[in-house]
């Protein structure tokens, strides 16, 4: 689900049951939105079921760089 997330429409990967809060978020995942999401998911989608956050700016930067480098999946997304 995370491969190809950078540049993908929010809450659009097939096979995942997104929260209603995240479904209401418009736009695409980009570095800025991912930074906010990883730091405080509730600030991006109040009421989301995402409970995990990364308090470290260095960790968030590393995750975003990894996700950007991972690119799009070669085939259908796995469930």
Overall description:
This protein has 79 residues and is mostly helical. It is built from four helices and no strands. It has helices at residues 20-23, 31-39, 41-44, 57-70. The mean pLDDT is 90.
Radius of gyration: 12 Å
Q: What's the number of helices? A: 4
H and E string? HHHH
The low-pLDDT segments are: none
Tally of DSSP β-strands: 0
In one word, what is the shape?
globular
Q: DSSP strand (E) fraction?
A: under 5%
User: Distance between the terminal alpha carbons, to the nearest Å?
Assistant: 8 Å
Assembly state (oligomeric): single chain
Overall average residue pLDDT: 90
Given helix and strand content, the structural type is mainly alpha
**Main sheet: strands, sense, barrel:** none
Percent helix? 25-40%
What tags apply to this protein structure?
single chain; globular; mainly alpha; 79 residues
Write the layout of secondary structure elements.
Elements: H1 20-23, H2 31-39, H3 41-44, H4 57-70
Helix pairs in contact: 2-4
Q: What's this model, at a glance?
A:
39% of the residues lie in helices and 0% in strands.
């Amino acid at each position: 689900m995370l491969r190809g997330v950078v540049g993908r429409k929010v809450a659009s990967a097939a096979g995942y049951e997104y929260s209603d809060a995240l479904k209401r978020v418009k736009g695409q995942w980009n570095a800025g939105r991912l930074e906010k999401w990883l730091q405080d998911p509730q600030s991006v989608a109040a009421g989301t079921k995402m409970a995990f956050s990364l308090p470290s700016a260095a960790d968030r930067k590393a995750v975003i760089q990894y996700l950007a480098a991972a690119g799009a999946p070669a085939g259908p997304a796995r469930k």
